[in-house]
Amino acid sequence: MTPHIESKIEDIAEVVLMPGDPLRAKYIAENFLTDYKLVNKVRNMFGYTGYYKGNKVTVFASGMGIPSIGIYSYELYKFYDVKKIIRIGTSGSFNKNIKVLDVVLSEGAYSKTYFPKLLDDNEVDFVCSSEALNENIKKTASSKNIPLKTGKTITSDVFDLYSSSLDEFRSNFPDDDFLAAEMEAFGLFYVAKKLNKEATCLMTVVDSFYDEKSLTSEEREQSLNQMITLALDAAVI
Q1: Whole-model pTM above 0.70?
Q2: Does residue 4 fall inside a structural domain?
């Protein structure tokens, strides 16, 4: 046990899917895993372990933001010997080439967070994700004819839609062709690098400054299900 996880070591698989929302972890367990059980409910940060196509998999919520995913990924890697974590979630985008419902794979995340400085007295603003995990995901997406956008992404400490203006928000980041913006991936990638583990992030774009498409609940669920299946299939290769 850790201060935030009550699971026994044998309750956690070596492969973890990590949505932000605890209820999404519950949804994945109920709809995609067999013989699953609840292995963590501390602070209602639900974790479930079950089987996908005969492979043991854990789905464990991270909460929102770098501090929260930093805690859970560190404890899972360090104290439960987790090898791989795939963050799955939603994102926004201010890239004109990215549309709502696109699935984005992060090859690395840029952030202006103070997280590395406080954890390691290290000044880092960009961290790459796992090449091996990314290759598995790209091969799986290709075999299933799932369009996949791959590239650099932004991890922000502020929900971008609440920023005073798009121009001010974007001025805080390099003039690179970032595909999507979310709030956790950088922390996960940094902890994985620190502990010599694997991590990546798959995102479904649900809002864009350049695409005003309004999603129905059915469209959102179908798109997220496709991303979840892609992550699970790639994780157990």
Answers
A1: yes
A2: no
